[in-house]
Specification:
By secondary structure, the chain is α/β, with parallel strands linked by helices. It has one domain: P-loop containing nucleotide triphosphate hydrolases (Rossmann fold, 3-Layer(aba) Sandwich). Helices cover 56% and strands 12% of the residues. The chain is built from 9 helices and 5 strands. Helix 5 crosses helix 8. It is globular.
Length: 234
């Protein structure tokens, strides 16, 4: 059986990548493709527990400050589990895998944002993930200020909802704004790192920037479809 196709979505929080991943998955499924979707961190039982530690701003009130190297190690523990449990079996079965974040996120957030450096991240990826590379990475790249504004508005809504729910409620919203609380300088380093990654790997990474044209969700979706259709020869 031919190997499947591995597509990742990257970008700052608030870039719209999660929405576009869902839309692409729906379009591919409607065209008869078998699609597996996942997010990082998360999408496995272990990954979901790691996600709760890494993204919830309330973690630091119970665990204390998470050291940058510990944060990096947890991200890769989640990634290794996702590869073993979801990604590798799906690719072996010939499916299309759509993943919301992968190692580019670690290079941007931990390598640049936390200033651990790209070399350390890429060495960790080679060792822990057997250097598995996406076939295509769609990098959503709105202006930095716009992405941060969207992400912080969203997380303010989620935080307000979580506070309004009774303790232990099953439908309590996640307070996933630990990274959004970082400084603008932190996010500027991430934004610059993504641009550098795209320049370094132009065949794999396709930037989807917001230009002077139509930047509606629908218009960006059509641009993404065109890239994927060309790569998959649909």
């Amino acid at each position: 059986m031919p190997r499947g196709y591995f597509i990742t979505f990257e970008g700052l929080d608030g870039s719209g990548k999660t929405t576009q991943l869902r839309r692409l998955a729906a379009w591919l499924n409607a065209s008869g493709q078998h699609v597996i979707t996942l997010r990082q961190p998360g999408s496995t039982p272990l990954g979901d527990r790691i996600r709760a530690i890494l993204l919830d701003s309330r973690s630091e009130s119970t665990l204390g400050s998470i050291a940058p190297l510990a944060e990096m190690a947890l991200m890769f523990a989640d990634r290794a589990q996702a590869i073993a449990e979801v990604i590798a079996p799906a690719l072996a079965a010939g499916h299309i895998v759509l993943c919301d974040r992968f190692t580019d996120s670690s290079e941007a957030y931990q390598g640049a944002g936390r200033q651990l450096g790209s070399d350390r991240i890429l060495a960790m990826h080679a060792a822990v993930c057997d250097n598995l590379q996406p076939d295509l990475t769609l990098l959503l790249l709105p202006p930095l200020a716009a992405a941060l504004s969207r992400a912080r508005r969203r997380n303010q809504r989620d935080t307000a909802k979580s506070k309004s729910e009774p303790e232990g409620a099953d439908n309590v919203a996640a307070d996933e704004n630990r990274f959004e609380r970082e400084s603008t300088e932190f996010h500027a380093r991430i934004h610059a790192a993504y641009i550098q990654i795209a320049a370094r790997e132009p065949h794999r990474v396709v930037p989807i920037s917001e230009d002077a044209g139509d930047n509606s969700i629908d218009a960006i979706e059509l641009r993404i479809r065109a890239v994927v259709a060309q790569r998959l020869k649909l």
